[in-house]
Design goal:
The protein is built from 7 helices and 7 strands. With 242 residues, the chain is α/β, with parallel strands linked by helices. It has a single domain, classed as NAD(P)-binding Rossmann-like Domain (Rossmann fold, 3-Layer(aba) Sandwich). Strands 3-2-1-4-5-6-7 form a 7-stranded parallel sheet, sandwiched between helices. Helix 1 links the parallel strand 1 and strand 2 (28-33). It starts with a strand and ends in a 10-residue tail after the last strand. 43% of the residues are buried. Keywords: Oxidoreductase. This is SDR family NAD(P)-dependent oxidoreductase. InterPro entries: NAD(P)-bd_dom_sf (IPR036291), SDR_fam (IPR002347).
Length: 242
């Protein structure tokens, strides 16, 4: 089995950092994107130049569409062979209290953040049969705050799915999750905005992507670890120290 990873939402932000990190550690990577074709193409070209002995490719799929999601794993397997790492990184993050959550908002969060990972995990188990799955949840799953109600519920569901899949897929496939906190500013916000948020967490500083990448390394290197959640959140899940 080749050392190949499929990373969803791989062309930008945390997904891009994960892709670059895996490549630097000798992984071939399939770069999934939906609308960001140009960034995906640039990333693929850059990695191919930097690591000429490795293989990089890109694949497009709209994770809202279950038909496109269900084609994704079989297509990757047909092109690269059986691969051994699935990183469910892609997600959408939209606000809305319970009373403000329309069916459209609910479906958009659930389809991309929960249903797509469910289908990809199922198909990875069916087609690849061995390896690792890493799911990205959120430190918000530890609270009952409802200002991002549908988003938070989708990530809570993904964490429950992580444990269920870890039990069912063992021992051939390990399934773990990472919960980032204050890592990167939204695309329309500055670093200063991020530092403002970090004032409310125990470590008092943004984590950036390094804690996330170190968490991935730990999961991949510890072959007895499954069904676990690593908080890469500077202690945010603990609550505030009053």
């Amino acid at each position: 089995m080749n050392k190949t990873a499929l990373v969803t939402g791989a062309s930008k932000r945390i997904g891009k950092s994960i892709t670059e990190h895996l490549a630097s550690n000798g992984w071939d990577v399939v770069i999934h994107f939906n609308t960001s074709e140009e960034p995906a193409k640039k990333l693929e070209t850059l990695l191919q130049q930097k690591y000429p002995q490795q293989n990089f490719s890109r694949i497009q799929a709209n994770l809202v569409s279950e038909k496109e999601v269900e084609k994704l794993i079989p297509l990757v397997v047909s092109e690269t062979g059986s691969f051994n790492l699935l990183v469910n990184n892609a997600s959408v993050f939209l606000p809305g209290y319970l009373k403000e959550t329309t069916t459209g908002l609910f479906d958009s969060q659930m389809n991309i953040n929960f249903k797509a990972p469910f289908l990809l995990m199922r198909d990875f188990a069916l087609h690849c049969k061995k390896g690792n799955i890493v799911n990205f949840v959120d430190t918000r799953i530890t609270t009952s705050k409802s200002n991002f109600a549908a988003y938070s519920l989708s990530k809570k569901a993904l964490w429950e799915l992580t444990k269920m899949a870890a039990l069912e897929f063992a021992p051939d496939i390990r399934v773990n999750a990472i919960a980032p906190g204050v890592s990167l500013p939204p695309e329309d916000k500055s670093e200063q905005y991020l530092w403002g948020l970090a004032e409310n967490i125990p470590m008092k500083k943004p984590g950036g992507v390094v804690p996330i990448l170190k968490s991935i390394d730990y999961i991949l290197e510890n072959d007895h670890l499954t069904g676990q959640l690593l908080f890469a959140d500077g202690g945010e899940n603990l609550g505030q120290n009053d």
